[in-house]
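the two lines:
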Amino acid sequence: MKYSIGLDVGGTNIRGAAISIKGEILFKSKLATNVSSGRESVTNNILTLINSIITHMKSSPISVGIGVAGLIRGETGIVSESPNFPDWIEYDLKTTLQTSLNLDLLVENDANAAAVGEGWLGSAKEEKNYCLLTLGTGIGGGVVLGGNIWRGVDGMAGELGHINIYPEGRKCGCGNRGCLEQYASAQGIVKSAIEAFPSKTLDNISAKDVFEMAQKGDSAAIHILSDAGRSLGIAITDLVNILNVRMFIIGGGVAGAWDYLIGPIKEEIFTRAYKVNRENVVIKRALLGDDAGIVGAARLAIDRAE
Amino acid sequence: MKYSIGLDVGGTNIRGAAISIKGEILFKSKLATNVSSGRESVTNNILTLINSIITHMKSSPISVGIGVAGLIRGETGIVSESPNFPDWIEYDLKTTLQTSLNLDLLVENDANAAAVGEGWLGSAKEEKNYCLLTLGTGIGGGVVLGGNIWRGVDGMAGELGHINIYPEGRKCGCGNRGCLEQYASAQGIVKSAIEAFPSKTLDNISAKDVFEMAQKGDSAAIHILSDAGRSLGIAITDLVNILNVRMFIIGGGVAGAWDYLIGPIKEEIFTRAYKVNRENVVIKRALLGDDAGIVGAARLAIDRAE
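prediction for all of em together
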């Protein structure tokens, strides 16, 4: 059976799957990333996982797609920088892997891969124009226009977590202030919680704790999640006015607080966006969970090979 | 000689030109719009101007392109709403004109047309990816991706004047609060001036007055223009992070205050945008002035006819 391998190289695990060209997940596997062991060791772990999938499948894939968090320089497959891998600076992951694997290979930003995955088998099926926002520790983004990932001139488009919410707001890891990520990611929710509950610190509260407090009816926790939703609504309004896309897919762990987020998201868009642009806006939860990136990476690899 | 007619239907004048397919402006003409005389009368004025250009040229154009401020529903040429023409609600301008003119005709948002114009004969020549911001009474925007205007799903993309700057900021005509337009348009600069100089009112200060005060060294006026530049820098940072385009063209009357704007614009982008995305950003002043829209409308008409 013709298949491709999709990989998601995360900070904790490298996850991979063999996926048929029709979109069936044939086999899944994972391996610890071991970031602390350094670049060469992580690269070897990637190769080990690919080879173990090939061994299991008893045939070679037509291509391999690899999703990595960070800034990927377009089609070169060079990882310019990655939040998960401090020692990957202008790291030519693609060429390095290709010298060991005689396979067609591509490297893609993990959020872009996830956006393609949701468009192939998930929430954005049949959609040609949509944005994906992945609410994890940070916020990843993918912009699909006319059926293709919009990568921008340097392959760096879609940094949706860094849309301005409050120009003088919280300091962000990207160097800016008041980015969406500072309010609607797990990290942002924790910061809101520390502001709301002065006895809490980074070590003794998590976004999940806030969610569980909200479920027990704690009004401050509900307010924190509602503010996260409002920030998302403001950022989506920008995207609606700039791009006039209709569909927004929201994934990642924080999307688990959907019931607390979706009302404020919609309210902000309805209050703020240009009337004609907002008329047909649809906000959906991502369907594929952690598999979106793997599925999308495989799909990009299939498209490239065919 | 093969030529098209480009028109810019503004609130005060309808301006038009015959432009050769090589980009030579062969003949220019204008007529008062007379908005207050109503939709039919304005439509007749448009027809009169087109016919007078044809008479002068002694031959028919291959096509006609018309730029109008407002929301144009994609390729249909229906004006959904226009700030200049309160009675143009879902007005089918294209069909109306075509029943009187036996010519290939298109209607485009004026800022989109201006973006195309600057890309053909102006500041963005040879560029495939750029945004235009036109700082007039309000702020118009055009987004060019891969050499084409990105119109969005409903033809409503590029509302760059309504990018969020301050979520709880000044009330905007679009229904939102804190839009770029409220700080960096002529209207926004006047609002800043009224805040800074409590003795001033809408009737006794204009954006031009602020500019002239700045030129005389008034520090409050310089501060107002610098704040307008900062807001532009914040909005451009969003566009840099979302779209990863490198070139931004700034036009419109307020761009006359360039020397006061450009420093703060660049400073904000440099402080705020993702490093890799901002590396190659270029901010340029529009070159074609009031002709950008006419030139772009003609170019779109030529592309369509050929």
